[in-house]
Specification:
alpha/beta, four-stranded parallel β-sheet, 52% helix, 27 helices
């Protein structure tokens, strides 16, 4: 409807939130604030005569002022009706995805000229896109074939092609993924009624009392749409036949019978197996003969490892054990059938819960050591939410006053984490009465909100019945402030306890560094010289680096050992005028080498709060890099105005 796709996204974001700051929009869409202001002007030009305009409220942000309800309503109807069939081709990423989907969906060769005309690009640009496409399909054992007289095509198994489509053609931006169907999804599945599939899937889940997260429900619908779409184009999957649980088989047979009648297609045995595997992978149905006692023993070993390494005693937390058992069992079912499950929250988890993530990574790498039970970063991210929620429950206390309902679409783990964080920040102010998924909330009536003061949701809600606040499940500082506005006379006391962790003798201001290894070696040597660590410290840091990236954002890296093995809790700091390559393409200028003494849990909590501040505040990172000496550095970290 608008001139380009970013305007559609900005408009939809503003209308789903009470107020939205220019800074947040700039960060979200990765443009400058000046660009956002220009975009707002273009939006207002389009809104003129359509019953509304975008206004700016000082200290709050942008909001939509409705001038004429009916005119604005008609405009929204036209806007939504226009968001259906045409694919977005505004960026190179969009065009690469479009070409990739065309090749994966084609039955024969596609001519280069045809592709160039479809996406309005030159031959040189197409050749650059093909290089990227070759990199992508190489991850799925797919092969690129070119014939001078015919064109190009991708060959490989149907299972591999579907995994590639899910991983690289279909987006799953978490904010929009679970609340509805995007223009991109409707364009890709233009011959499939996504709304019908949603009603179909939800009805079978409800009828059979199958509980799962909104994110997993959307996964099921998308896999169902992909299955139907591929069958319509005679792309049938061949998978190993598995012994199905009789109850789940009956559900699969019933769903497939309805699909056959509705779309006039034939669903093969292989397709039924495909649906069965995704159904059990995206729910918590107990259908696999995984040894429950062995899994419970492994969980106990995980918690013992966390206690031995970090001195957080979670060994007797019944809620945690139950949550971990259910979640890990679901993960291992997926792994048994090589069903990959991407974690859309991984970046948020690593940036906002680094302590819980590191503790979990340490535990699982020591307990789950043999394939196919080895957990990857996506798996660790989900499990760390349960660990983090258990840690924060230890600090929740007191009586609450306001009755709150939580709406969270990403599953029990994120709900537990959000609940724990709220109880930490507002222990005497709120009472969390009930937690719902987005689908459950959408079916609530007015009577369901009796006694509820307001809703805290991870999804933007539209309700005239009860006020709601949209927050990130990680409940960052901005979210805490938003919740505080709903509560009376609350002051969040943030005690700064950073000075004890930093030392002028452990501070380096450098023009540049030869390599990541050189920076770590230099910081380690200073810690060793000051008798803060011993010789085993460096080997432990190197082991952690081999497991995964410790780069936290575009500026900041946080190398650290696999276990607590320091004599004091200290941070060695290196600030670089020129970035150093950390991992893959990540470049950093702030390096904190972390040394933590065993038995100082509260110190760790306070220290990680500092890191989270740096990760979430790009301007703070820039200030830190520009610090000329230790004095200015520590003042910036502690939030002291200079």
């Amino acid at each position: 409807m608008f001139a380009y796709s970013r305007l559609d996204e900005i408009f939809n974001y503003i209308r789903k939130h009470e107020y939205t700051s220019c800074e947040r929009l700039a960060s979200r869409f990765e443009v400058t604030e000046r660009t956002i202001r220009n975009d707002i002007q273009e939006l207002n030009d389009s809104l003129q005569g359509n019953g509304a305009s975008i206004k700016l409220k000082r200290k709050y942000g942008y909001y939509i002022e409705v001038i004429e309800e009916k005119t604005y309503g008609d405009f929204l109807g036209q806007l939504e009706a226009g968001e259906l069939s045409e694919p977005e081709l505004d960026s190179s990423r969009d065009r690469i995805k479009y070409i990739l989907n065309r090749l994966l969906s084609a039955n024969d060769y596609i001519g280069l000229e045809e592709l160039m005309q479809e996406v309005y690009i030159s031959k040189n640009t197409l050749n650059n896109y093909i290089k990227r496409i070759k990199e992508i399909i190489g991850q799925y054992d797919l092969e690129y074939i070119a014939k001078a007289s015919a064109g190009i095509k991708i060959i490989g198994t149907e299972a591999a092609k579907r995994k590639c489509i899910i991983g690289h053609v279909l987006s799953s931006n978490f904010d929009n993924y679970i609340t509805g169907f995007t223009k991109e999804e409707r364009s890709i599945f233009k011959d499939v009624d996504l709304d019908y599939l949603k009603v179909l899937m939800l009805s079978y889940l409800d009828e059979n009392y199958i509980k799962t997260s909104d994110f997993n429900v959307k996964n099921l619908i998308i896999h169902l749409a992909l299955m139907v779409s591929r069958i319509q184009n005679n792309h049938y999957i061949t998978v190993d036949i598995v012994e199905m649980d009789e109850g789940v088989r009956a559900i699969v047979d019933s769903i497939c019978a309805e699909l056959e009648e509705h779309y006039d297609i034939a669903v093969s045995r292989g397709e039924k197996t495909y649906l069965y595997l995704h159904l059990i992978a995206n729910t918590h149905m107990d259908v696999e003969n995984i040894n429950d006692e062995q899994l419970k023993e492994a969980i106990q070993n995980m918690l013992q490892t966390i206690y031995d390494s970090y001195h957080f005693d979670l060994r007797y937390d019944g809620i945690l054990k139950e949550d971990l058992f259910r979640h890990l069992k679901s993960i291992f079912v997926s792994k048994r059938y090589a069903l990959s499950s991407r974690n859309p929250l991984l970046g948020t988890i690593k940036n906002n819960y680094p302590l819980a993530f590191e503790m979990t990574l340490t535990a699982v790498t020591r307990v789950f050591v043999k394939e196919p039970w080895v957990l990857n970063e996506d798996d660790v991210g989900y499990v760390s939410l349960h660990i983090g929620a258990a840690i924060e429950r230890c600090f929740a206390k007191g009586l609450e006053k306001k009755n709150v309902m939580l709406v969270c679409g990403s599953g029990q783990a994120t709900t537990r984490m959000l609940e724990a964080r709220l109880n930490v920040y507002f222990p005497e102010k709120i009472n969390i009465v009930r937690s719902l998924s987005y689908n459950e909330f959408s079916r609530c009536g007015k009577e369901d909100f009796e006694g509820i003061d307001f809703i805290i949701s991870t999804i933007a809600l539209e309700s005239n019945v009860i006020p709601s606040i949209t927050v990130n499940f990680s409940l960052n500082n901005e979210d805490v402030e938003a919740v505080s506005q709903f509560l009376t006379k609350i002051s969040v006391n943030k005690t700064q306890k950073t000075g004890q962790f930093f030392d002028s003798r452990l501070f380096f201001k450098l023009p540049e560094a030869e390599s990541k290894e050189a920076v770590i070696e230099m910081l380690y040597q200073r810690l060793l010289d000051l008798d803060i660590v011993d010789a085993r410290f460096l080997e432990s840091v190197e082991r952690r680096e081999s497991l995964g990236n410790t780069c936290m954002n575009d500026w900041f890296a946080l190398p650290h050992p696999m276990e607590l093995c320091a004599k004091e809790t200290k941070v060695a700091v290196a600030l670089l005028d020129k970035p150093v390559l950390w991992k893959d393409r990540d470049m950093v200028q702030i390096v904190f080498l972390l040394a933590i003494k065993p038995g100082v849990q509260k110190d760790i909590e306070h220290l990680y709060d500092v890191f989270i501040e740096i990760v979430n505040d790009g301007k703070l990172s820039q200030k830190i890099v520009k610090a000329k000496d230790f004095s200015s550095f520590i003042n910036i970290v502690q939030g002291i105005e200079i």
